[in-house]
Amino acid sequence: MAVQGVRAVDIRRAGWLALMASVLTLGLIAYGSWVRVSGSGLGCPDWPLCEGALVPEIEGATAIEFGHRVYAGVTMLLVAASAAFAFRARTHDRLTSRLLVWALVAILVQAVLGGITVLTELHSMVRLAHLTFSLLTLALLTGGAARALKVRFSPPPDVRRWRALVIAAAFVVLAGGTIVGTGHSAGCPGLPLCDARSGTEAAWVHLVHRVAATALLLALIWTAWQARRVGGWAFWVSVIAALLAAAQFTVGVSAVWLRLPQELRIMHLGLAAAVWWAVVAQFSFALLGRTR
Ligand code: HEM
Fold it and tell me: 209: Cβ below 6 Å to ligand 1?
C-alpha cells in the first residue's frame, strides 16, 4: 500500500512536469519560427557545439539560435524528469509511463533533427520532419499530463468527432509546413484564392492549406456550438479551440494581405501549435472520460 502511494505521487509529479513541458514546448515552437523568419537558422553553423564552443559569443543570429538551443535543452530536461517519474511508476500506470517515455524519445529525435537541419543547411524536408516531431512531442506530453492528472470529461464528448478533428488539424498544420518547406510562402499573394501571379505548384499547396483550414475552422465552430448542450468544461475547451482557430485564420489571411511580416509569421506558427494543443487536449479528455 505504501509503495502504491509513492507510485501515485510519482505519477502526479510526472503529470505536472509534463504539463509544464507542454507549455514550454508551445513557446519553443514559436521561438523556432522566430529563428527561421529572422534568418538565424545558421546562427550556429555547427552542431552540437555552436561556433566550435559550448557557449559562443552572444550576438545577432548566433544569440537567437543559441537561445533556441538553450530553451530546447531546458524543455528536454523537464520531459526527461517527467518520463523518469512516470517510468518509475510504470507498474502503477503503464499508459502514462508509455506516453511520457515516448514523449522523451520524440523530443530526442527532435533534437537530432534540429542538428540535421543545421548540418544539411536547412533542407526543406528535414524542416518539415522537425515540425512534425514537435507536434508529436506536444501531443504525447498533453495526453500523458491529462492521464496522469486525471483530467477527463464526464459525460465524455464524442470521441470519434475529436479524433477526426485531431487528424484534420494535423493535416492543416502539415499542409502549412509544406508551404514553408517547399519555399512557397510568398507564392500565393491573392485572396481568397491564388491568381495569375502564382505558379501551379505554389497555387496547389496554398489552395489545399486554405480549403483544409476553412473546413477545420467551420468544424470547430460547429462542435463548440453543439457542445453548449453538454455544458461545463467540455463546452469551454471546445470554445477555446474554436476561438484559437478563428484567431489563427485571421492571422493567416492578414499575413498574406500584408506580404508576410515577421511578427505575423511567428504568430501563425505559435497559434498553429496552440490550436493543435487545444484539439489534442480535448481528444485526450474525451478519451479518458470514456475509458474510466
Ligand atoms: C486553422 C487554420 C490554420 C492553421 C492551423 C495553419 C497552420 C499553418 C502552419 C503550421 C504553417 C507552417 C508555419 C511554419 O512552418 O512556420 C502555416 C503556414 C502558412 N499559412 Fe497557415 N494555417 C491556418 C490558416 C491559414 C490561412 C487561412 C491562410 C491564408 C489565407 C494561411 C496562410 C499561410 C501562409 C502564407 C503560410 C506560410 C507562412 C510562412 O512562411 O511563415 N494559413 N500555416
Answer: yes
Closest CA to 10 of 87, 75, 98: 87
Q: Which residue has the cell 479528455?
A: 285
Q: Residue 271 CA to chain centroid, in angstroms? A: 9
* CB-based burial, 37-47: b 16+ in 10 Å, e otherwise: bbebbebbeee
pLDDT digits (tens, 9 = 90+) for 77-109: 999 999 999 999 999 899 999 999 999 999 999
* Segment 35-52 mean pLDDT: 85
Cell of 50: 555552436
15-35 tens-digit pLDDT: 999 999 999 999 999 998 898
Residue 272 Cβ < 6 Å to ligand 1: yes
Substitution candidate for ligand 1 out of 34, 179, 259 with most atoms within 8 A of CB: 179
- Give the domain ranges of the chain: 1-150, 155-292
Cα separation, 176 vs 178, whole angstroms? 5
Going from the Cα of 262 to the center of ligand 1, the distance in angstroms, rounded, reads 13
User: Nearest to residue 132, comparing CAs of 285, 247, 283, 276?
Assistant: 276
